[in-house]
Amino acid sequence: MTTPIKAAQRLGETQELAPVLLRTSDLTMRFGGLTALDKVNVDVRRGSIHSVIGPNGAGKTTLFNCIMQANRISSGDIHFASERLVGLTPDKVAAAGIARTYQNIRLFTGITAIENLLVGMHRQLKSHWWEAVINSARCRLDEKKAHEEACEILNFIGLSGRGDMLARNLSYGDQRRLEIGRALCTKPKLLMLDEPTAGMNPREITEMMHFILRIRDVFNLTIVLIEHQMRLVMQVSDTVTVLDHGVKIAEGDPAHVKSHPAVIEAYLGRAAHRQEQPA
């Protein structure tokens, strides 16, 4: 059986040959007198799992918000698959092929699991609004296909048989997977996960580690991951970017980043670094 770390290492061997899918160039974001991101340059290669780490307040979620154009950047540029994202609305960024999840789960808790997935599929529907009014044949076919695909996603995320449950009644871990499933329903090229293991116990973290690798392999996706669980980051990542107070202080493969003096000082801490060393 291939372990997560071996799967990541195998893919990592080919990453230098993969084209850049997402690029930020001197990306700067200021909120008044606070510089949340300071000329951050990141290249995310197609097919990779690229983690962004750093202490609280480092600018990680701000980076996601800038990529999605939820925040209007102060200066710099962002390109995705050769398309310039700066100036687009968030829905246009999503239409370009980027989906994201949030540190705090954002589900429609008053509707069912399957309905949450169907919300993510609205961009895939081809029929017009007026066809829904008259219940046209094309509209019925669209709805049937969407429901079938939603059921496939429901099975993939491990919620088969629970599609009729209200989202609020699912367990915390199931809600996390449902939010990721809804993002997958948009059929993205790039999936951005903001702390997917937040609040999880060790067993759930291990399950999520395997789940992330399955997503990458089954859907042939590129994944950008914000995560504080260093065990997960070190085992699944091809590339790790480290931010501290909005500045990129290190970048490279997990082994390089793990031993980088600036990372040890700013994020891992010297005691944590010593614990990570082999006996």
UniProtKB/TrEMBL annotation:
SUPFAM superfamilies: P-loop containing nucleoside triphosphate hydrolases. It comes from the Bacteria. Keywords: ATP-binding, Nucleotide-binding, Transport. The keyword Kinase does not apply. One of its GO terms (biological process) is D-alanine transmembrane transport. InterPro entries: AAA+_ATPase (IPR003593), ABC_AA/LPS_Transport (IPR051120), ABC_transporter-like_ATP-bd (IPR003439), ABC_transporter-like_CS (IPR017871), BCA_ABC_TP_C (IPR032823), P-loop_NTPase (IPR027417). One of its GO terms (cellular component) is plasma membrane. GO terms for molecular function: ATP binding; ATP hydrolysis activity; L-isoleucine transmembrane transporter activity; L-phenylalanine transmembrane transporter activity; L-valine transmembrane transporter activity. Residues 22-270 form the ABC transporter domain. The keyword Mitochondrion does not apply. Pfam families: ABC_tran, BCA_ABC_TP_C. Belongs to the ABC transporter superfamily. This is ABC transporter domain-containing protein. It comes from Mesorhizobium wenxiniae. The lineage of its organism: Bacteria, Pseudomonadati, Pseudomonadota, Alphaproteobacteria, Hyphomicrobiales.
